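Schema walk-through. Below, the input block comes first and the output block second. Nothing else is stored per chain. Lengths vary across the set, and this one has 828 residues.
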Amino acid sequence: MPEQQQWTITATEQPPEWFIQAVKQYTPASSGLYAAQLLWQRGIKDRQQLTAFINYKVYQPASPFEFGQEMHLAIARLQQAYNTKEKIAIWGDFDADGITATSVLWDGLGQFFAQNTQLVYYIPNRLKESHGLNNQGIDNLAKQGCKLIVTCDTGSTNVEEIIYAKQLGIDVIVTDHHTLPAERPPVAAIINPRYFPKEHQLFNLSGVAVAYKLVEALYQSLPNVAKYPLEDLLDLVAVGLIADLVQLSGDCRYLAQMGIQRLQEDFKQPAVARRRPGVGRLLELCQKSGDRPTDISFGLGPRINAVSRIQGDASFCVELLTSRDVKRCNELAEVTELANARRKSLQKDVQTQVAQKLTQLDLSTTSVIVLEDAQWPAGVLGLVAGQIAQETGRPTILLSTEGAGEAGEQGSRGAGSREQGAGGAGEAGGEITSLSSNSELSTQNSALVLARGSARSVNSVDLYQLVKEQAHLLHRFGGHPFAAGLSLLVENIPLFTAAINQQLRQSLGSTTLTPTVQADLTVTVADLGKELFLELKLLEPCGMGNPVPKLLIQNCWFENSWHRNQQDWQGKKVQYIKAEFDIRDDSSRSAFPGLWWGHYKDELPIGRCDCIAELDYNTFKKRYEIRLIAVRSSANSALNTQHLPLILDLRNQEHSATQHGLNAPLPLTGLIIEDCPTNWDDLRMWLRRCLAISRSTSGLENQQQLAIAWSKPNHQPPNQIWLTLVGIAKYLSRTNQVVTRRQLLEKIGISDQTLLVGIKALKYLGFTVQRQDRSLQISWNPNDSAENLADEAVARFLAAVREEQFQQQYFAEVPLSTIVAIASYDNK
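--- output ---
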């Protein structure tokens, strides 16, 4: 059973009247107040932002040639292939973003290159291969005569494989949105939005959107070739964007809005007249209409992802999304639906088994849940780990040895054309966006069995950093702060479990991890219905950075509750339980319908209670309803009102204040943090200091304020930082001048800890660094004999800089609600 949840509600700042009236123009049937509060709360604070956010027709998308020289190089290489009739292979990925990206390139490049003869595609097998390029697949493409590979949603860090392809006479164009390589790989072009600054309108593009930008550039460069309009690809772009859970801002939001409209328009057509009959059939099978982002996130996305999770090979999904053969698409859609039904069944079974194993754990002494089983299918572990993490409030790692290969083994399969890939099946979800191999695990250990698994985090625990600290125990790992994939020797699991738990306990100190649910608005039952739904719909499409609004309904009760078994699409097997009910409170004489997935009616509390829910429209039943997220009896419903500092979010306000003529509020009493932290311990120190001050000021604890006022970091490339440090060292040695450590830190823009790593690297280059009072004196005597050691030391410094920059980017964007939650946990 889940632990007692902690509920929080987002602090709401009343927007000015002019802003409320501006929002009301888009919600003539309602006051617009709730939407205005949410938009203001989420950073939409001027008319221009508001208009562009709501109405995509006035938004100015970026040109594909914003990618600069790399896009020009890519187009030049594609034009060369077009002129010389070279054979091209699209190398995709097996999750929904990768499948839709492959489909966009298949349809888009297919306007310029003959499909199946001049253009083929290849999707790695999820259960046998990893993300990215591999040499055996490249070998097969070389045998087919391919001279150019265009990757999508993958490839940025596959430097060795790119070099291998080049040795075989194959050029590579990388289109991707994942981790950047330390140096530019030897590619024809690399198109990756991570090269942009974080505030750039293209920075958050997913793999499918980057692929679209490449096709858009080719359409502009060869304007009289394509038979079908570029806009025909936008529905696929919307599916990939929303399914991949990227931040829907800038061009991402624009493309998703345009794509959803085209998706809905196509679905309204008879099946024989649809451009994408496969997409239409999938929507029919999941009883969706395509007009809502949730139709993708809860309908299309999971079904596309389910194929590789269950069958490994997801190649036929490209045909499903692009073919105009209605009969063939119906067949493939039904195979996809069967895979999704199987995924649900496996997920339910594994979740039941995990719940049983949880009863054997003492959660009061467990910081990270690590469980393993030889029978668990690896394909659903990420989904179950996410559910357990949410229920327990603890990072969760689930491992399986089912079908595990020997250490060092890399499965692969041959690359094929569209027809060759059509009989297989697959999902992934970007669990491993980059991989780091443990070099100590060599081929001599090839007889040892590996466990593979997935990890999910909650409560702002940086999972990637947590796992990375135990890299010496792992074979491979990769991911980001909230999700990771990993593999390790089975014999290392107990040691890994103990070490990662000890590490997190030390990091948390006295903090207790608790499952948390956050509400955005407080409403009544009388507020629920069409008017509020249309008002909140202004925020769609929702995603990271703009989540679906969570509504707190207090002092309510349930009536007419019942539950039924949710069967698979053929009515054969029970998949989930679903409770349905009517909700009431004192605000209205009318009840409002709702449902609670995965729960029985007996789990609804008797009597008055509070709940957190999302407002939705059921296209199948044609009614407005709430989807219950959390519920508890009113006796236990007090929200977290601990005496914490009032945290003001003034990040990145200087530019905004100058641009819009606003005066940012400054704290009346308290502290201002201007330096962007690189870890939670830095921030906790300020929170504790703020509390200590408040407790010593005659009981004025509630008036204490802490302002977080750092700006988005403007990072230089790590190599440039190293060259700057070496240049300063040479200058100081030549001029015999001294420098303070603070002067160095300000000049180079790194932390004290990273500077120490840099000073160690300087010593291997022959520099001597001596303290002189509070200053540093540097002299230089080059020593060739330490060259190899110097390379290793410089690599460690570059890695430290990249890690620090990664953390600062995270703290520049981490939601205020997360910081408040951390403060709550620290001060129980």
